[in-house]
Design goal:
The complex is a heterodimer of chains A (623) and B (198). Chain A is an alpha/beta fold and 623 residues long. Helix content of chain A is 38%, strand content 17%. The radius of gyration of chain A is 27 Å and the shape is globular. Chain A starts with 11 loop residues before the first strand and ends with a helix. By secondary structure, chain B is of the alpha/beta class. Chain B has a 6-stranded mixed β-sheet with strand order 2-3-1-4-5-6, sandwiched between helices. Chain B starts with a strand and ends with a helix. Classes of the chains: A alpha/beta (623), B alpha/beta (198). β8 (178-183) of chain A pairs antiparallel with β2 of chain B. Bound molecules: iron/sulfur cluster (SF4) (2 copies).
Chain lengths: 623, 198
Amino acid sequence: MHKLLTENPGQKMLLLGNEAIARGAIEAGVAVASTYPGTPSSEISLNFFQMSQESDLYFEYSTNEKVAMEVAAAAANSGVRSMCVMKHVGVNVAADALMTLAYVGVKGGMVVLTADDPYMFSSQNEQDNRFYAKLSGLPLLEPSSVEEAKEMISYAFEISEKLQEPVLFRTTTRINHSSAIVTLGEIKTPQTKGDFVKDPLNLVTVPAVSRKLHVKLLENIEKAKDLTESSAYNFIQGDGKWGIVCNGVSYNYASDAIKELDIADKVRLLRVGFSYPMPEKIIKSYLKACEKVLVIEEGEPYMEEQIKAFAQEEGLTLSIRGKAKDLFTRLYEYDPAQVRENIAKFFGMPYTPAAKPDLSDVPQVPQRPPTLCAGCSHRATYYAVKKAAEGLGTIYPTDIGCYTLGVLPPLSTADFLLCMGSSVGTGCGFSVSTDKKVISFIGDSTFFHSGIPGLVNAVFNNHNFTLIVLDNSTTAMTGHQPHPGVNMKDFNLTGYGRVSIENVVRAIGVPHVEIIKPYRVNKSIAAIKEAIDYEGVSVIISKEACTLYAQNLKKARGKPFYINEKCTDHRECVNQLACPAFYIEDERVHINADLCSGCAVCAQICPEKAIVPVRSKEKIKSS
Amino acid sequence: MQTTRLIIVAVGGQGNLLASKVLGEAALLADIPVRMSEIHGMAQRGGVVESAVVFGDAESTIISDGEADVLVGFEPSETLRALNRCNADTIVITNTAKLPPFTVSIGQGTYPDLNELQELIRQKTARLVAFDALALAKEAGNFMSLNMVLLGSLIQTGLMPVSADNVKQAIRTSTKKAFIDTNIKAFELGFEAAAKAG
Ligand code: SF4
Ligand code: SF4
């Protein structure tokens, strides 16, 4: 049985934040869950996916976040509890549905989880999604710890049902990817089927209806204000005159700092866990009890601005500070020492930070950026594209996935990136505004997510560019989730359809379509050349399974290669392909047989024909 | 309870997340408060993977620069890179078997000299335990049990608030069945190696 389905209230378990959240949803009796995978939220849905195979939970990997939001919205409007999970930028994709869902509301509880990523450990921006609550008028909850995240999910469902509105649940990477000891609660049996009651005058958002619904939303915000005032997740600790307001993980850093600086008797700390609407009454009376207030929140001055507005309304002039050159930054994530130092500074405490070692004589350690795996099919495709486009001035709009790693030399096949699907739309734009050849790259999962409308646009407006679909039969970067092009029978899962990328591309009417096997280097180069020469929209679908995934699934792995004595040490393989299985020892190139997947791409490009498959154990040693 | 802060750095695929999970499970068995965090964005693509383990009364799950009580490095150049996480009182344990990044093969940067690297760490911290953990993992029967070797030496130092028995029990419950014996053996070899290193 899946460990998160354990029925043993009171049992303690070491859980990852994302596991705790998934467990919290199960304890709350979630019936329908949907997602598009995105770090740092991915493990929540992975656990849902696994649990759905052995419980009544319905879970789906939707094609994108907007669809996921719509699926969950309809479920909640049929009276069942639903949850949709996405990374922060995913909410941008789903925002169109979300904004009007706030008008329509829900019947069963609905929780929308947004996993923000301060510092951008694995994201293209670090937008602060608390503003989505303000923008949509929906209640917002923010846990500070792994344990609290689990508890708060049930609370989120309760509030959602009380207000008949979806609730936003915001985490940051340091909640999603932290672990702590969590006490299991009781699992509520989910109500898996509901009923949809027709009510078009409240559910079909034509202008006349929406004008009414906006009034209802504003009334709901007023009701939410009562809830936030009495919420146990907004609490005050201490009765000193030094005010510290914090949320999320900054609460942890502030709590530790207060202990370490030994100032608990001086501080009055307000932790805001229900942060939209902000608890106005609590804050106004809190401000009156403080001499000065420091607001500690990663990201934007979301609370700070609101607190200052409350102070203004009360005619209070105490100093309220947070984001400032000499205090907290809007950039990246915070850490305990930074919070400790700023607290000491703001309240005028003597403080000497721990002496840091003098590292001036430490040599520069060579960088270790993540790189495409040994034998990754994307490397093979990129090599072929670069050969086919040799001598042409090209622009390479790219997209989001493992293949974005092509940005690094020597591949250097990424020139422009905005968001999921942007390779296609920006490809159209570059093709009309420059005379350069435009070659865009998009992964299979991203193609389904948001590449298709761009391609339709390209055909309709007759743009001149080549789109390369890197089809490796999985959503590799976020942990190998399936997508609509995957054959689910390979995983012994039934009840799924399958969509062929080739059929979609042809149905859109792309005039030049070719499928290549990227490990066949010369054939691929020839096919790509033809596509590049074509005036108009051309699409190449480069099909080869993600080698890491194939190895994980224990599919047979090719024989490793080694470099024999014919090698003349010009290192063309290293300099053009840079497969991480290569290494240099004793001034010679070698192949690490443990890493080599046997893709044979290097063997095809070696002009000396010095790279050959290993036939016996001896050869590995002599290489 | 006193707070103990541990940072583990490794290269993707070396299994440091499992090592910290075993430590966390051991703390759960010993009824010791523990919080951990990990950054593994692209762990499987050969990047750096870092985990932080905080034992005792603390709410934070991350450790600021200069504030690690113990640093365990699964790869020597990564241990050196993480020296900014240490202070003069930090105890450092490192594997000495190299795994040069591919940037070195394509001529971007040179791999630091192993002796110089150890000398630098020794100068700037309280103590360095350095040995070839990969060789011991292979001796235990599987190069993948490198993480358990280093866990053994970490526990031998007595700096962790969990006992060797707690950790061995956690290895039995949270590592793959087929590898339990190898992992326990690896743990013991690492334990002995640290004892010898004095
Ligand atoms: S996980 Fe798959 S797609 Fe990603 S780099 Fe590795 S082989 Fe390539
Ligand atoms: S065959 Fe060559 S390119 Fe392919 S994985 Fe092995 S070393 Fe890398």
